[in-house]
Amino acid sequence: MLLAGALAALAAVLAAPLTPSPAHAADPVRLTVGITNEVDSFNPFLGIEAESYEMWALTYDYMITYSMEDMSPEPGLATSWETSEDGLTWTFDIREGVLWSDGQPLTARDIAYTYNRILDGGPESSSWGSYLTSVTKIEAPDDTHVVLTLEKPNAVLPLLPIPIVPEHIWKDITEKEVKSYAAEPTDGQPVVGSGPFRLVEGTAGGSTYRFEKNPDYWQGTSHLDEVVFQVYKSDDPMVQALIKGEIDFADDITPLQVKALEGEDGITALNGDSPGFDEIGFNTGAIDTETGEPIGDGNPALADPKFRHALGYALDLDQIISKVYQGAGLPGDTIIPPAYSTWKWDPPEDEAFSFDLDKAGSLLDDAGYTEGSDGKRTMPDGSPIGTLRLFARSENKKSVDTMDYFKEWLGELGIDAELTTMESNKLTNIILDGEFDAFHWGWYVEPDPDSMLSYMTCDQRGGWSDSWYCNPEYDDLYAQQNGATDDAERQEAVQRMQEILFEDSPYLVTAYNTIGEAYRSDRFACFQPQPDPGGILLFQYGVHNYLNIRPADDAGDCDGNESAQGPEAAGGGAGDDDDGSSTPLLVGGAVLLGAVVLGGGAWAMRRRSTAAYRE
Amino acid sequence: MTDLAAQGADAAHTPATVGRRRSYGRYVLGKVLGSAGSLAFVLVLGFFLFRVLPGDPARTLGRGRFRTEAQLEEFRATYGLDQPLPQQFLTYLKNTFSGDLGVSLRYRVPVSDLILDRLWPTLLLVGIATLLATVIGVYLGVISAWNRGKATDKVTTGTTLTLYSMPEWWLGLLLIAAFAVGMGPLPGIFPTGGLHSVDAEPGTIGYVGDTALHLVLPVLTLVLVYLADFSLIMRSSLLDEIGEDYLTTARAKGLRDVVVRRRHAVRNALLPTTTLIALSIGFVVSGAITVETVFSIPGLGLLATEALTIPDYWVLQGTFLVTSAGVILANLLANLVYGLLDPRVRS
Amino acid sequence: MSASTPALTPRQVTRRRRADAVRRSWASFRSHRSGLFGLALLTFFLLVALLAPLLADGEGLEVTKATGGVLESPGSGGYVLGTDENGRSIVTLLIWGSRISLFVGLLATVISMVIGTLVGLMSGFFEGWPARILYRVTEWFLVIPFIPLAIVLATVLGRSLINIVIVIGITGWASTAMLIRSQTLSIKERPYVERARVLGAGRWHQMSRHVLPNVMPMVFANTTLTVALAILAETTLSFLGLGDPTRVSWGSMLEDAFDVGAMTTGAWWYIVPPGVCVVLVVLAFTLVGQALEEIFNPRLRGR
After folding, report:
1. Does A241 map to a domain?
2. A551-609 pLDDT, tens per residue?
């Protein structure tokens, strides 16, 4: 350790005078955001990571964006829109006076160009094609109108979260070239976009991405001069960097870190609701999608909706939330998270799942799965159920722990189960082969529920359906809501679908997850959560907060934005006396480490003289 | 690694079977052919090893995005994943020989670009760490051999062995806690991670200093853990030399201790150490993966580890090929130097 | 009665000679203080592992039966070293974790010893291209970075305890093989082996009766050193998320501690003790191994 200290000191002396100090005159206002995953592509037609979506949102504009409150569609480049009576024609009015960062005007033609690229197939289509389902033609009759022609109504419209790219740049990139087109700054020239920021430095897979503000953004310029994303490969060092002040915002941290940070001065930490859920999924009956023959070896008991539904009462979700999710989450019930209140269906009080092993037992008894003489439940025909094979994703601790609890509760019901953990890639194969009984996984749910609902349809078996669920009534409702032109009608169908899923229980939704975030509230203020209230602060749908955020000493009343977290939120911790610092760790570590080193040395020393001169 | 040390020492001293000593030329040829064989093996293995990995890149990369089977198929077709394996293998061979390592499935950029970007942080880390560990390790080895049985020897050996027993990433975490976050009187002088500060301007002296500052803790971690490898082998080979006759002669001639040490023993004892340095590069590269994780250094190790979860075949093949080739070449080089310096091994 | 020694059968002679050798080795081992220290440490950890059920209730490992609060600090609630994020006692985890860590270390070593000894013996004893190929393969395994290979293997095989053992076992045999090979090469040239050869002893006889017994002590010494490496490897694989998440080992404890942010939460009792245990056990095996090496390898004597 002496050596370590000496080296460290030496290096510090050497390096300190060389360390660049921030420019003194007119320091740019820079927000540095710590993230734990790289951007996989700055090309909006290629990337898939959440981080990449954030980068595109900073660089490009969208015809329609999402609201802060509940992520409903809001005007973006389109100021208003109307649908024809039959729902087959959509006309959008496009904002005037928007400029690309190279000075060219952004018109309806750029939008039509982008959409047509997607409609034409290729990588563009595999990324965004699903938003243009049943769209047959996209036209820009003039600079301020975009007209979409459909073959049948599509209820997901007007939601079109597709980044608009400049035609004058992208027309030179062929479909073959696009699959490796980086869309990154070249020769020091920033990427041409129309968004509130422009990428000046960074490459896909790199560790730093630097954005400069767009000085004449049509929604008003940002209060930040620069936004920098710094990739950390693990949470804890990132949180330490936040405490030290190397970064201003830490994304995706654990509930325990949030708790520890609540006590730090100048830092605000929270668990924001993330629109997604975790579930235990069952093998409801895997089939070969071509022949319709059963495949795999799923337990026949799980093909019975009554059996699956009964297990819903054998889950103590409160305990799972408090122990597995460290309290940062909500018990789940349906596949639509509470953030989307318009679409969510809540099970009636007396039917909702509650932890009640007696009720679960009597439901199983009623369905014929009675206990045999050995205390184990049997199939209605008296044959043994056997051991249920539960699968968890080994890289996800919540997954492993949840299934661990589930296994024990099944045991108390008289059902044997065994837990296997594996990489999600491998689990995907097993699910596709139907060689499982139950697994734990999760989904992010988009503001429009259509895609999530589609994953439970018969058509998706062998595709994205992991429960092999198939119910014609559900499928009919899916088609009905997808083609609905009336909001109320669609809402009713969507809610009825959730009710069916609740009864049939291909999934037992265990939790609505949260994402931990923390920022230096002594430096920045005016973050508004999405959904508001209770949501996350960055990596939202849309870029609202990059325009809201202000330096803390210049925040005022955040322009009267009431739900934004003003400067008074600074240091808002729960006021507990745990200072959350790592000093105890350090002291403990140092003492033990020192003891070990000294012990080793001392022991070695005692060897002295015995074997000394035995040449 | 300790057995490596023993083996390195053995290699140098296995009684050379008296007989025909091959010329250096033939020795070089043999070694070069051997390395070429290894490279060919790596080339083939690199392809098939990763195809065994579970998972379908189209599904991993398309979760929540591709909604139809057609979209999945389109993705596979775009990246040639729909072709039969032998066909893919031939394409891979052809491309590799023309210097094309393919396009990353995840990042959609040429793998060679990715590797170039990630290579220098790893090279910097591993290079400096190996260099320092060697120099300090050899020095410590000399010191302890010369003071064999004395307190200096015991403390040095005890400390290096204890450090050697630590998982390097655990030590890294403790170092972050101590010197980056700050502990008691120690201010947190070093950055917690990354390779350079956001505001450092590339190409300036400040930038170099900034990078150096970021490298201190990760390099220190690797150096501390791998110190024992070099100090132990140096110590044992030097002890061997001390026993040799010529040294007794030198002493008898009345040369001062220091001169003896420098002129004869140390120089000879360095020989087996060269082989070990080359051998240990593979180990340091391994250690670098976890250290890169802890210190968030965007290196080659992390690139490969993350590519596994997709699996991003071309990135895996590329990194595997490049690192293996690097290690094989380093070994070849060490062998050639060794053969030049010590004719005994040529036989 | 025992004054005169009756004539001994050859078997008895052999047995007596072996017993003497063991006694001599032990006497010489006792003079290695660091080796003895290592042995004491080792005995302690082995005892802990063996007596785990007596020292701590196995139910304490079950997340569902955990009684403590989240990350309670040492001393509070009767937990000597506090609790983990599930409210389990760290001491219980350490005690039961020692079983998995030692089990993985020892079993993986057995695998690499078997492979390493076989390959080493064969590439040293035989001549011609099979030996050369074996040598190449060994050299290749020695040179290739261990972690990437282990990661790929672990990913392919999936995560279970036995797979971790296999992965570590089949990636770690190369240095043993090299060592055995060089020993075999030098033993092969010894006069008595040559005499046996001249007298017409078959290869199998030469190998099993002459070479192997002479190599065994080195194998033994090497084994203890390899266990140290295997335990470190288990820790590292766990850290990289490739361990068996349903079992508690020191490596998995460290990984969990790192995952929940033990550094930020100040939970030093979660991240320091498992690490110290690893360091102590690895150090113990290394010290014992080095002492054995010195005893069995005359060339190293006196260092």
Report:
1. yes
2. 888 877 777 776 666 554 433 333 333 344 444 555 555 555 555 554 444 444 333 33
- Decide if pLDDT at A282 tops 50: yes
pLDDT interval class at A493 (50, 70, 90): very high
| Cα A196 to Cα A198: distance, rounded to the nearest angstrom | 7
Distance of CA A310 to the CA centre of its chain: 30
Neighbours of chain C (3+ CB pairs under 8 A): A, B
**Which of A321, A585, A610 is the best residue to mutate to test the C interface, defined by the most C CB atoms within 10 Å of its own CB?**
A585
Could you say which residues from 146 to 175 on chain C have a Cβ atom under 8 Å away from some Cβ of chain B? 146-148, 151-152, 155-156, 158, 175
Is A589 close to C87, i.e. CB distance below 8 A? no
Q: Are residues A126 and A67 in the same domain?
A: yes
Among C252, C59, C261, which residue's Cα sits nearest to residue C159? C252
Same domain, A137 and A35: no
Residues A497 and A439 in one domain: yes
Q: What is the pLDDT of residue C276?
A: 94
* Residue to test with chain B: of A207, A423, A605, most B Cβ within 10 A: A207
Q: Which of A459, A481, A513 is the last residue of a domain?
A: A513
Average pLDDT of span A508-520: 92
Are residues A207 and B65, on separate chains, in Cβ contact within 8 Å? Answer: no
Q: B77 — contact with chain A (CB < 8 Å)? A: no
Tell whether A66 and A86 lie within a shared domain: yes
In B, which residues are within 8 Å of C240 by CB distance? 289-290, 293, 305
Q: What average pLDDT does the segment A461-465 reach?
A: 81
B296 touches chain A (CB under 8 A): yes
The closest alpha carbon to B314, from B134, B102, B146, belongs to B102
Residue A422 pLDDT class (50, 70, 90 cuts): confident
pLDDT digits (tens, 9 = 90+) for A526-549: 889 888 888 889 888 888 889 888
List the domain range (segments joined by +) for residue A67.
61-175
Quote the pLDDT of residue C54.
Answer: 87
pLDDT of the residue at A397: 84
pLDDT band at B78 (very low <50, low <70, confident <90, very high): confident
Q: How many CB atoms lie within 10 A of CB A265?
A: 12
Those residues of chain C whose CB sits closer than 8 Å to some CB in chain A are: 31-34, 37, 62-64, 66, 70-71, 73, 85-87, 155, 158-159, 241, 244-246, 256, 258-269, 271-273, 276, 279-280, 283, 301-303
Lookup: tokens for B196: 């350079």
- Nearest CA distance, B208 vs chain A (angstrom): 8
pLDDT of residue C302: 43
Residue where a domain terminates, one of A513, A543, A571: A513
Domains in chain A: how many in total? 3
In angstroms, the CA C47 to CA C54 distance is: 11
| CATH number, domain with residue A93 | 3.90.76.10
CB contact under 8 A, C272 and A236: no
Please tell me the distance from the alpha carbon of residue C187 to that of residue C128, in angstroms, as a whole number.
Answer: 18
CATH number, domain at A579? 3.40.190.10
CATH topology of domain B2-32+113-346: MetI-like fold (1.10.3720)
| A170 plus A197 within the same structural domain | no
- Taking an 8 Å cut-off on Cβ atoms, the answer to whether B158 and A127 are in contact is no
Residue pair C83/A323 in contact (Cβ under 8 Å)? The answer is no
The answer to whether residues B137 and B284 touch, using CB atoms and an 8 Å cutoff, is no
DSSP states of B290-301: HHHHHHT---HH
Name the strand (E) or helix (H) holding A274.
strand A267-282
Q: Give the chain B residue nearest A289 (alpha carbons).
A: B69
Domain match, A6 and A21 both: yes
Over residues A322-348, the pLDDT tens digits come to 888 888 899 999 999 988 888 999 999
**One domain for residues A369 and A461:** yes
On the question of a cis peptide bond just before residue B311, with omega within 30 degrees of 0, the verdict is yes
Mark yes or no for CB contact C32/A582 under 8 Å. Answer: no
The domain defined by C70-301 folds into: MetI-like fold (1.10.3720)
Q: Is residue A604 part of a domain?
A: no
- Predicted-complex ipTM score: 0.83
User: How many beta-carbon pairs under 8 angstroms link B with C?
Assistant: 140
Q: B133 to chain A: which residues are within 8 Å by CB? A: none
| Calpha distance B213→A511 (Å, rounded) | 44
pLDDT at residue C255 is higher than 90: no
